[in-house]
Amino acid sequence: MTKRSNWSIPYLVFLILFVVLPLLLVVLYAFQGADGRFTFANITRFFGDADALGTFALSIEVAIENTLLCILLGYPAAWILSNRQLNRSAVIIVLFILPMWINALMRTLATAELFTMLGFTLGKGTLLFGMVYDYLPFMIYPIYNILDKMDKSYAEAAQDLGATPWRVFWKVTVPLSLPGVASGVLMVFMPTVSTFAISEFLTNNKIKLFGTIISENINSSMWNYGAALAFMMLIIIGITSLLSGDDEKAAEGGLL
């Protein structure tokens, strides 16, 4: 135990048991039939299932809308937090962190109860409100970290060359912050597609997202088809992660 590398063994065991093994089981069940034999029937069933495809399309739509709203609200907030002239108090940063100290399910239940008390009809509008409320911090902090660590000399150089503050913001600040935006999009978009508790509580189960379909199949002991749907989500997450990585490299390497 004198070697530093030995201290990584517990983490390695944890990853194998609770990350690698569950993923392997998902893939295994996705390509198994009820008789335990290898089959593509579960995958092809998804592409022929109008209900699953419609729910998937709706999930993508809600995820895009939620991500765009989080960017519109999160970027100005992150910029204000990183601007020393506008933000001189650490209290403001703590206020953005506070919601994350509360369990997401409790926040969702409280939001649903608030809408009920106010007499609002639960639907897509309340769903998007709850989504933004839950995922906005995950958009703010990656952008804030990038803006806070940004080399201010770029903006100063642009100002010395006669650029207006607005032009400095669009030509210097925004391009340099794109890696943070890409990270925020990844952290907001994919959880939105796969969530199910938020849509159930904030719409009274009127709107089903892709995570709900997976949950219903698993709860109905349809493990193979549920695993196939989860496998499709894994593929989408992997593709999105690869594209996000390429975008971040392009933003970092091809800016100036």
Structure summary, number of beta strands: 0
The CATH class name of the domain at 50-219 reads Mainly Alpha
Mean residue pLDDT: 86
The general outline is globular
State the end-to-end CA separation.
Answer: 48 Å
Q: What is the CATH homologous superfamily assignment of the domain at 50-219?
A: MetI-like
Radius of gyration: 22 Å
Give the biggest beta sheet: none
Q: What are the low-pLDDT stretches, counting only 5+ consecutive residues below 50?
A: 250-256
Strand content: under 5%
Task: Describe this protein with a few key phrases.
about 260 residues, MetI-like fold, single chain
Report on this model:
This protein is mainly alpha-helical and 256 residues long. It has a domain of 170 residues: MetI-like fold (Orthogonal Bundle). 77% of the residues lie in helices and 0% in strands. The protein contains eleven helices and no strands. The longest helix has 33 residues. The radius of gyration is 22 Å and the shape is globular. The termini are far apart.
